[in-house]
Amino acid sequence: MAEISRAKARIMIAKALAYGREKGMNPLSVVVLDSGGHPKAFEREDGATAGRFAIAEAKAFGALMLGIGGYAQRKRAEQQAYFFDAVNGVFQGKVLPVPGGVLVRDKKGVIIGAVGVTGDSSENDADAGIAGIEAAGLTAEA
C-alpha cells in the first residue's frame, strides 16, 4: 500500500503554512496522518494557541476514519448529530467534524492519509490543507 513519505509530509506542512501566511491567516498548526491514523509530521507556528495539535489531529483523524473530508462531515453532523455522538464514543472523542480535515489520495485515488489544519476559520484551514496536499503532487478531498 502506498504511504505518505516523510518528505511529502514536510512539503504539505511547509506549503500549508506558507499559504496561511500569504493569505494573512492566524498562526496555523498542521498535522499529517498516515493511512493508519498515526502522526507522520506536525508543526505549530509561533503564536498558535495551545491545544492545536489535538484539534488538528481530530480534524484529520475524523476524515481518515470516516473516509470523508471535513465539509462532508460537518454536513452529516448537522443532519445526524446522533451519528457523530456515536462515532466519538467509538473513537474516544477524537473526531472533530468540521472543515480543515482533508483526505490525501494518491494518483490512483486511494486514501493514503489525511491532513488536519487549525488556527483560522475552518474554511481557511481547509484551503491551507488543500494547498499543502496539492504542492506534494497528491489529491485533496476536503
Description:
The protein is 46% helix and 20% strand. By secondary structure, it is an alpha+beta fold. It has a five-stranded antiparallel β-sheet. Strand 3 and strand 4 form a beta hairpin. Helix 1 packs across helix 5 and helix 3 crosses helix 4 (81-90). The mean pLDDT is 96.
Give a nutshell description of this structure:
The protein is α+β, with helices and mostly antiparallel strands and 142 residues long. It has five helices and five strands, in the order H-E-E-H-H-H-E-E-H-E. Strands 2-1-4-3-5 form a five-stranded antiparallel beta sheet.
Per-chain topology:
Layout: H1 6-22, E1 29-34, E2 39-44, H2 52-66, H3 70-79, H4 81-90, E3 101-105, E4 111-118, H5 122-135, E5 139-141
Antiparallel strand pairs: 1-2, 1-4, 3-4, 3-5
Helix pairs in contact: 1-5, 3-4
Which key phrases capture this entry?
5 strands, five-stranded antiparallel β-sheet, 142 residues, alpha+beta
Report the radius of gyration as a whole number of Å: 14 Å
- Work out the helix count: 5
What about the largest sheet? 5 strands, antiparallel
Mean pLDDT: 96
Fraction of helical residues: 40-55%
Strand order of the largest sheet: 2-1-4-3-5
> How many strand segments?
5
**What shape does the CA trace take?**
globular
State the order of secondary-structure elements, H for helix, E for strand.
HEEHHHEEHE
What share of residues are in beta strands?
15-25%
Instruction: Kindly report how far apart the N and C termini lie.
Output: 22 Å
